[in-house]
Amino acid sequence: MKKVVARANSNIALVKYWGKKDEEWFIPQNSSVSLTLDELYTVTGVEFNQNNCDQYILNGKLQSQKEHKKISEYIERYRKISGIYKYVNVSSENFVPTAAGLASSASGYAALALALSRLFGLSIDLKDVSKMARLGSGSASRSVYGGFVEWKKGDNHENSYAEKIDNADWGVAMIIAVVDSQKKEVSSREGMKKTVETSPYYESWVKNADEAVEKIKKYILERDFDKVGEITESSAMKMHATMLSANPPIIYFKPNSIKIIESVRDLRKEGISAYFTMDAGPNVKILCMEKDIDTIFSKLRKNFDGEIIVSKVGKDAEILEEIDD
Ligand code: PMV
Predict the structure, then answer these.
(1) What pTM did the predictor assign?
(2) Centroid of ligand 1 to alpha carbon of 68 (angstroms)
């Protein structure tokens, strides 16, 4: 039986994706830019089975019916496109330093998309894999590439995909302060839908985000780290502002999130180039340079005793193993 194993790294958005134009095809309202991290990743193996259903194991555990339904619907897209109506065993391992509750859907769907594309004999050109990954989770479209990545919003399945901007191999890093490892109360899917529907500020978010993407790309290519950082912070806060203005408001901040944000601002006053960002949860991610990791780590440790993860830049998704017998 043919078996394929693939790996993809997680990514953290610097200019955020927040809101869909098309729910079924995961077409976003705005383009976004991210940094791929090598410390958080997923390895996924897929093989055809002889049964009449798909099987999904995550971190050694058979998943719930709800999770099976979701993954089966996703695999169904591959069956339809390829015309190969076979069921699949999926076995995934999420490599995060602990059960940190950090978003694994990006690396998860990127690894799965690459593995399934190979298994079903579809194109494994990363642009095509990006489009398929997008159909599992929007942010996964960016995880097929390493470095700094742009997800070009497009307006249909064929033109909504990610592209690499730069390898980010000039000493860029990210530090994650794990404020809360619980599963988030409001999923990003629900949260963005509510925001699009009810925030009076949503229209200006979209316009501003697309402008921010153009600016950050320029600064990335110029290696102007501080400008990249400023846009990163600003995009996160604008995204959270649209969430706060939704009805009912969506609040992901916890007291420790604010505490860490304050530490980052203090670090800047001390001359360290560090910039924070937050996603659909209370964890704070700090964009920084490798040379400043120790200083930032010690500063955070002074008033935060939770887990701190340090990550360098991750590479493109890849096929690790392919067995054909
Ligand atoms: O693709 P999702 O459903 O995991 O949504 C990602 C949303 C954010 O993490 C908040 C922003 C982003 O661009 O990754």
Answers:
(1) 0.96
(2) 22
